[in-house]
Write a structure and sequence with these properties.
Layout lengths: L12 H16 L18 H18 L6 H10 L4 H4 L14 H9 L5 H13 L3 H23 L5 H11 L3 H11 L14 H4 L4
Helix pairs in contact: 2-3, 2-7, 3-6, 3-7, 5-6, 6-7, 7-8, 7-9
Length: 207
């Protein structure tokens, strides 16, 4: 028999309003495009699309570490790392030559009034500083997601993807991240579902 857990105190009307506003703001990431892909003519991807797989990669990388890593913190950091882009938009590397987003101010504004503001502020500041082992893993997850997308575009015949790869590889800082990157580059993005040696693709489920 498990012990009953005391329920959390009911949020105040002010807290509830801030929480709902925050959840609407998170939804903005579904409509915020990743701005680098037009340079490859590679179609569209939202920041939310990107962030979901970053979080999954972060979970994988955390499990590959020998120990001493706060895997839960890595996952939470990866999940929220691009939240400020709901306000700043996504600035690609060409944009950043000329425009600088004040992500620290955006983060402070988006967390203001939230009952867990301190937690979000801490996670976002740690990610920006990129000094802890957890933040380094989260950054590697961010770059591996980009690499996966590049390979998917490569396999779809998008020209120019290979020229981006060396720069992505130079950003990786963990051994596990580098190992996964090599495997990603040697893989075909359709292999997980398309078994070319199977006769299934002749008649499918028709027998």
């Amino acid at each position: 028999m498990t012990s009953p857990v005391d329920p959390a105190p009911a949020p105040s009307p002010e807290d509830t309003r801030a929480l709902v506003d925050f959840l609407f703001e998170v939804g903005m990431l579904k409509r915020t495009p990743r701005s680098g892909w037009p340079f490859l003519g590679a179609g569209q991807e939202s920041v939310a699309d990107h962030s979901f797989r970053v979080a999954m990669i972060a979970m994988v990388l955390s499990r590959l570490e020998d120990g001493g890593i706060d895997a839960d913190r890595v996952l939470r950091m990866a999940l929220v790392h691009d939240l400020p882009e709901a306000r700043t938009g996504d600035l690609n590397y060409m944009n950043q030559k000329y425009v600088q987003a004040d992500e620290e101010a955006a983060a402070a504004d988006l967390t203001r009034g939230l009952p867990f503001a301190d937690e979000l502020d801490s996670l976002l500041a740690e990610y920006r500083a990129e000094e802890t082992a957890e933040s380094v893993i989260a950054h590697d997850a961010d770059q591996l997601e980009l690499l996966l997308q590049l390979v998917e575009n490569r396999d779809g015949g998008v020209p120019g993807t290979e020229s981006w790869v060396p720069f992505v590889l130079k950003r990786l800082r963990t051994d596990n991240g580098r190992r996964l990157a090599r495997r990603i580059l040697d893989s075909n993005s359709t292999r997980w579902w398309f078994d070319r040696d199977s006769d299934w693709w002749v008649r499918g489920g028709k027998g």
